[in-house]
Design a protein that fits this description.
The chain is an all-alpha fold. It has one domain. Helices cover 73% and strands 0% of the residues. The protein is globular, with a radius of gyration of 19 Å. The relative contact order is 0.19.
Length: 253
């Protein structure tokens, strides 16, 4: 969990004095491709549903869209709503948060925090008490958590999924919304990071290799993670985060 935290830690072990944010962006771009591939069916339905629902609402003579079109159009809307707080945090707090990538000890602390967040799934409502629908409050809260999860060591997916579960969303809904919400966030981060970036600082080959490897491992990780989300097994990642967090703190003392 927390790709940015792992990246900062291993860059430090390899002797990099400054965080390679461009490499981090390349890795997240690979993850983005994995999300597109894994959720391609949902994305197609969101596009078609939003298009059909929008045409109907602006006065088209077409028949009223069915429930499936409406539900996917709403999902698109909730992704837009959730992106607002993420974008605001990124715009106003980008530089202070990016400076945190230079603190390896902070990564260790935040990995411990991530373990605690994952452990909170034990407090989430049971399946019989789930069923809350995505709405403005849920979308804004999850989007805010996503924005704060830029802190290295905090798992974006873990934090947003746990937030959704604590709000009473069904497991499948919480997991799917978390990753669909990551799409505009990663694209926005990519645009900001590539602006004025010096690719020669890292090199094209490392960037392309990192992108390809990230896409492959990201797709495999998505399959495993979504399976664990459906089974309510996210808490199993907590011991790993705690152990790695302690290792990071011991190594950086």
């Amino acid at each position: 969990m927390s790709s940015s935290g792992h990246l900062v830690f291993f860059q430090n072990l390899l002797g990099f004095k400054e965080p390679e944010l461009l490499l981090d962006t390349a890795l997240h771009l690979g993850t983005l491709l994995a999300v597109f591939i894994y959720f391609r069916s949902d994305l197609r339905k969101m596009v078609s549903g939003t298009w059909a629902f929008t045409r109907w609402r602006i006065g088209s003579r077409r028949a009223e869209p069915g429930p499936e079109h409406e539900s996917h159009a709403k999902l698109t809307w909730w992704v837009i709503v959730g992106t607002v707080p993420t974008g605001l945090i990124g715009l106003f707090f980008r530089h202070p948060l990016e400076n945190l990538f230079g603190s390896v000890s902070l990564v260790g602390v935040m990995l411990l925090v991530t373990g605690g967040i994952l452990a909170l799934t034990r407090l989430a409502p049971g399946e019989s008490r789930r069923g809350r629908k995505l709405g403005y409050m849920a979308a804004l809260l999850i989007g805010t958590i996503q924005g704060l999860a830029i802190i290295p060591g905090i798992s974006r997916s873990g934090a947003t999924i746990v937030c959704g579960l604590l709000l009473g969303l069904e497991r499948e809904t919480a997991g799917r919304y978390s990753f669909l919400l990551s799409i505009p966030a990663i694209i926005g981060a990519l645009v900001l990071q590539l602006h004025g970036a010096d690719i020669s600082r890292v090199g094209a080959i490392p960037l392309l290799s990192g992108f390809a490897l990230s896409a492959l491992t990201g797709l495999l990780a998505l399959k495993v993670l979504m399976g664990m989300v459906r089974k309510g097994q996210l808490v199993y990642f907590a011991p790993y985060c705690w152990a790695l967090g302690l290792v990071v703190l011991l190594v950086t003392r």
